[in-house]
Amino acid sequence: MTERHSSPSRAVTTGGTTGGATGGIAGGSAGTSGRTDGGRLPPARFAYDAHTWKEIAHLLANLPMSVLGFTYVMTVLFTGLWLTVTVIGFPLLAAGLLGARQLGKLERARARALLGLQVDEPSPLPWRTKKGGSGFFPQLWMGLKDPVGWRTVLYDFVRLPWGIVTFALTLTSLFVLWPVLPFIARGLTNVDRAMVRGLLSPSTELERRIAELESDRGVVVDVAASDLRRIERDLHDGAQARLVNLAMGLGLAKEKLLEDPEYAQAMVAEAHGEVKLALQELRDLARGIHPAVLTDRGLDAALSSVASRCTVPVKVTADLDARPVQAIEGIAYFTVSELLQNISKHSGARSASVDVWRSEERLLIQVWDDGRGGARLDGGTGMRGLAERLDAVDGLFVIDSPPGGPTVVTAELPWRDRAPHRQ
User: Fold this and answer.
1) For residue range 138-164, what is the model confidence (pLDDT) as tens digits?
2) What single string gives the DSSP state of each residue in 277-342?
3) Domains and CATH numbers, the chain
């Protein structure tokens, strides 16, 4: 039985409303717009309504707009390409792509106004302007690989010959083929709509990914809030309660110090024991937040330490030639720690193993045990919480646990190298 956890895909609609694009034909003597019954186009003598004139205006504007876009691409972008052999070429090219984005925005506005085509604006580039931002060269690279800018460049290349054709056909039809011009305009603007949707609308996959990341951000916030509540509860019920008892015990010992020294000595000894227990609970709590062995020695040593406290014999194998960033390392540690706790409490296993290795840009973790099996993602909050933690950082959580065992849990995390100064 294999269960796989991932965020549900969110469908993002980016297309325009085709009804507004194909309707709007004047029908009847009253001048109402729309198709005739049955969806057939009305006769040409009724077809010149406001919507048709907007389509004709769009087709006539294609030529000057396409000349503007093509001229911009040829002058700015190709100048930047030719100057890439110098230090100013790449910044100029990135600025040109940023300008192409603005041309695309203008074209989307024109399509909305004249064609009734509703196209969402693409997400802006995630520039970092605050202190501690990513720096000039990462920002430059982000601008150079902007897919929205490059698709707008392609749109401007394709649109020039198309703009010449549509302008010539529309202008000729106004004087020669005016009875059928509404139908010609309808066919030509349908091609324009397809070009705008295909090259100037946001990528459906990209928008789906953005929606997924927004959901993951909510999961991260919920997980962080849950962790804070857990820490608060552990402090309140554990160390804080012991420290309160310690203060009361020392107060009694102070009062009895002169009257009954032996009783006071016993109270101090009891308080000393409370201090030791409180310190141990604080150490356990600190280990639960981020263990010192993980910070100092990395995953291999930290996982070996966790395995040594497990009630089931555990073999740990870690094949890592470097350390990932602290956040990924911490998630990997707590994932294995939680899984080993589950093995100790619920599996009835006699042996277990933990394997950790890197495969390209992924950190892979596999935890195996020979217990009774039957583990499920929806079987409790523990497994589901682990899956949500991994999913929040674009990870993957897979359970293979048939009844009777064995159980194999595989976790994948994105690998990001730790900066040298943090090692």
Assistant:
1) 777 777 878 888 888 888 888 889 989
2) HHHHHHHHHHHHH--HHHHHH-HHHHHHHHHHTSSS-EEEEEE-SS-B-HHHHHHHHHHHHHHHHH
3) 14-202 (no CATH), 212-289 (1.20.5), 292-422 (3.30.565.10)
